[in-house]
Design brief:
The protein has 298 residues and is mostly beta strands. The chain has one domain: monomeric porin ompg (Porin, Beta Barrel), CATH 2.40.160. Helix content is 8%, strand content 56%. A twelve-stranded antiparallel barrel has the order 1-2-3-5-6-7-8-9-10-11-12-13. Strand 1 and strand 2 form a beta hairpin. It is globular.
């Protein structure tokens, strides 16, 4: 839950050319797609076997999967998130879209990742006294573009016996966003991924993450963790519930604890819809988080 609680009165700052960011993402995905035959031919039976299975996404839950995109293919994951938080008489709403994540399979069990949370609109509502001393509601709004990120994911081990699937994900954020939304520095992160298939219906998964977060002129180490239980309700419909937290939630703040759940629905093996709803378990976390999205594999 990356949030910025400093709201400027009626301040609206534009993004640093979001069209350029989208163009960069598209060009990187297209160029990688055109060079994939270097690593694998479409006639490869292993490649066809991977594409015969339903796509595995890294949304809508917080927990990242251990699976990488099949070689010579690209997966696009997009969505919209609404958050609401009320604390000490102040109410904050935030909307973020289109939450683009482009995942490109560049080698077996290895993918390139290009992410952009997109454009955020943040509203803070609070009560303040007017000239006569009566309390009146006031709303401050700001908006802008978030930072771009680039990373890789590598699946290291398949599940064997009691040993789970295991992978690793590394990324850096690029200070390309608008003032007030960008960290203004390069922020690295590393996430350890694990998953265990209990049977054909139930699976559990989790992440342990480490990130160097920039806050104004300082940097701090933020760790994170999650655990998720997923269940197949049918061949197309899936459900999950998870806990995730940040330790700490921000510079010189308490930890943030959250619970989250949602559904996924497969239109086809290569196209999935999703929705989620979550809540904060303490004051540092957002009270309500809701979102929808879709993913497509080509």
């Amino acid at each position: 839950m990356r949030s910025d609680t400093s709201i400027s009165s009626k301040l609206s700052t534009g993004p640093r050319s979001p069209n350029r960011l989208l163009t960069l993402v598209y060009c990187l995905a297209f160029s990688a797609q055109s060079t994939m035959p270097i690593f694998a031919q479409d006639s490869d039976p292993i490649l066809h076997s991977a594409m015969d299975e339903p796509l595995v996404t890294d949304r809508p839950d917080f927990t990242e999967s251990t699976e990488a995109i099949p070689t010579a293919h690209t997966q696009f994951e997009l969505g919209y998130t609404f958050t609401y938080d009320r604390e000490d008489g102040q109410r904050q709403r935030n909307q973020t879209f289109p939450e683009i994540l482009v995942r490109i399979g560049i080698a077996p069990d290895f993918e390139l990742r290009i992410g952009w949370e997109g454009y955020s609109i943040s509203d803070e509502l609070f009560d303040t006294p007017n000239r006569s001393g009566r309390l009146v509601s006031r709303e401050d709004t700001r908006q802008g573009s978030n930072d771009l990120s680039v990373g890789i994911k590598h699946k290291l081990f398949e599940q064997e016996g009691f040993l789970p699937h295991f992978g690793i994900l590394g990324a850096i954020s690029v200070p390309s966003g608008s003032p007030g939304f960008s960290s203004s520095d390069v922020d690295p992160s590393l996430v350890l991924l694990w998953a265990y298939d209990i049977n054909d219906i139930f699976a559990i998964a989790g992440n342990i993450g480490f990130a160097g977060i920039s806050d104004d002129v300082e940097r701090f180490l933020q760790t994170s963790a999650s655990i998720s239980l997923a269940m197949s309700l049918s061949d197309r419909l899936g459900f999950y519930v998870e806990y995730f937290g940040f330790y700490p939630g921000g510079m010189d703040t308490d930890d943030a604890h959250n619970i989250n759940g949602g559904f996924t629905y497969l239109i086809s093996n290569d196209f999935q819809l999703d929705m989620r709803l979550g809540a904060g378990l303490n004051d540092q976390a957002d009270d309500i988080v809701a979102g929808v999205g879709f993913s497509v594999r080509i």
